[in-house]
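debug: dumping io for the single-chain case to check the tokenizer round-trip. Nothing else runs in this session.
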Amino acid sequence: MFFRNLSLFRFSPVVGADLSRLGEALADHRLRAVGPMELATRGFVPPIGGQESAPLVRTTGHCTLFTIGGQDKLLPAAVVNDELQRKVQQIAHDQGRRVGGRERKLLRDDLLTELLLRAFVRSSRLSGYADMENGWLVLDTASRKAAENAVTQIRQALGSFPAVPPAPERGTRILLTDWLANGTLPAKLALGDECELRDPATPAGSRWKGRNVDLDSDEVKEHLRSGKQVFALGLVFDERISFVLGEDLVIRKLKFLDVVVDELADSTYDATAELDASFALMTLELERLLHKLAEWFGIPRPQGGVA
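debug: decoded output
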């Protein structure tokens, strides 16, 4: 169950203590089936798939795992518009008159009602965990919208959850550019094989992306000399984790390398024990990485209370 992307938020020690009631708070916010006239629903589901009666959280050490489930009706706008256009043309042909804006809106509303009853439902899951001791909320998504929606779900369950995105004291883009241009990477950090460079001086932002490339190559250095800066950089931490770090501090393409994965390879568990073991290993590895991330970029932990 290793995460693939990390969207990060920080919270204070007081908020961390309040999260001890998370499992109890989520009980009244379980995912329910989307209704006939609804477009979508969101709610919490057990982290162990296929076990609807299982607990809504799993806690290992000071980290608590949760999963937000979703059900969305698949109703593309193009389908609605095509069907609406067909009805408008049919009225014009049969009755010899033009359909006005008000009638067109009523027709569209009737169509939505009709199509919602026949729409397919797509299920989704987004997992995350709260590190109560170190003040990190870690969500397995690179989407800002999905991450903010997840925080909203937690806030609704708890009544209050003042978690905030990382607020680095050092410019992330400047630091990433310095790492790539001058090789000034911190200890235990090495370059990967991917980066995205942009020219911040132009409105459109002249862009160059490289994947599976030598980041020490002359081509990359020439782009840097032309004034481009690093907006995303592939990195390897302690020869155990590879990832792409964006200037927004979102971690993408997270991968635990063989030396980490092999620690689970020879073990046999049932589904629950396997989840607990992989979650414990993942959080231990990420605790080290996030500690360094806060150190490199100067990411303070909030000190306020529960709002």
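debug: round-trip ok. The two ends are 33 Å apart (CA to CA).
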